[in-house]
Fold CO8G protein.
Amino acid sequence: QLSGKWFLVGMASHCRYLAEHSHQLEATTVTVTVLDGQSLAISTFRKLDRMCWEIRQHYLPALAPGHFLLKGEGDCSKVDVVVGEADPSSFIILYYQKGHSISVKLYGRSSLVSDAIVDKFEQRARAVGLSEDVIYYFPTYGFCDSADEFHILDGEL
């Protein structure tokens, strides 16, 4: 149900880098492929210095349905990913937790989603202590569909 192309619509996070560079946010798409019926192969496409990049990640299934684990280098860099709410035809809200830090992302099947979906996303963000001043919305134009072989980052970030 999660397979296919998604557009990153919004993100709520206390990330300092995001706050300092929010004026430089780039249109971002994600392609999800379900592997072996459980784990997810994630390809994120976005621009960096006007070049299209692809970032490949692997979300491993966790113990509960809708829960995934994104492993990085070392024990301290694992990220828990939880599907908060989804309508596979239109939107998905994901929670990302690393240690005590949590962020919430809203993805849509198109780059524009309804106000009702935006309201759900903002309510979910507030419910985990993320106020409106740390919610960022991404551009709805200028998407990358691919990256050349020299602009692929393979592995976990």
